[in-house]
């Protein structure tokens, strides 16, 4: 679907789907949005708008890294939106000229819809020109990163503050799932940050130089987002190490318990084994109180070993 919007020289906003209308003498500038276009509609990038074949190729062959290309009469931006459910990157392409802006995306973009609503509610924004629309699109798409990261932060805080009733395996799975989500976000945010850094540090048109402060604001947002991602990755690493240490300590306690039990039963098993051989020349077998005597010896051995283990500090691990 292609949507056309145009601002006339006398300040009127036109909204129709006729591309031919955009070349009228009374049109000051226009915005054309390619929303999930068909192959026939994609061909208009060359046949009607006459964009450079390389920039058209970048639109068709997705997913390109965020970048900025300068052509003779327009700037070509590749930026990334984020799918709120899958966290996958979705490419949005912008052609920004002196009197036009063309947005192109194979996925429906809530961010562009939001910008369109803002422009509909405040017609004064149209007077700022296509450069400002490009800024609004970038700023809106970047702002949509924040809710995703805040949800991940909330999940991490819940795990960190949990009472550990979940099993070790469940907790580790949650931590590694979050770490995977952060890696997806990092692959989107860092290239976008590099793109905005380039925009701020190259010589472009006078109009865009005047908007440098606006782009600087987007860059600051991306710096903050990158910092949040790194902080959360560090937090997942700390949680992973903490759970691994906790699990290791639990395993040590279990092994110590089994060792103590096994050590206590070694002499008991030896005594029971000796008197279980039933040789005829074992005089103790015929004692009237031999059974109780041997039980007493076993009890004394157990008590003595427990006293010795406590003296050596073996039970300190259970405190």
From TrEMBL:
Keywords assigned by UniProt? Cell membrane, Ion transport, Magnesium, Membrane, Transmembrane, Transmembrane helix, Transport
User: What species does this protein belong to?
Assistant: Bacillus licheniformis (strain ATCC 14580 / DSM 13 / JCM 2505 / CCUG 7422 / NBRC 12200 / NCIMB 9375 / NCTC 10341 / NRRL NRS-1264 / Gibson 46)
* Database matches in Gene3D superfamilies: CorA soluble domain-like (3.30.460.20), Magnesium transport protein CorA, transmembrane region (1.20.58.340)
- Protein name in the entry: Magnesium transport protein CorA
| Record's bilayer topology term | Multi-pass membrane protein
- Family per similarity comment: Belongs to the CorA metal ion transporter (MIT) (TC 1.A.35) family.
List locations, semicolon-separated. Cell membrane; Membrane
> What CDD domains is this protein classified in?
TmCorA-like_u2
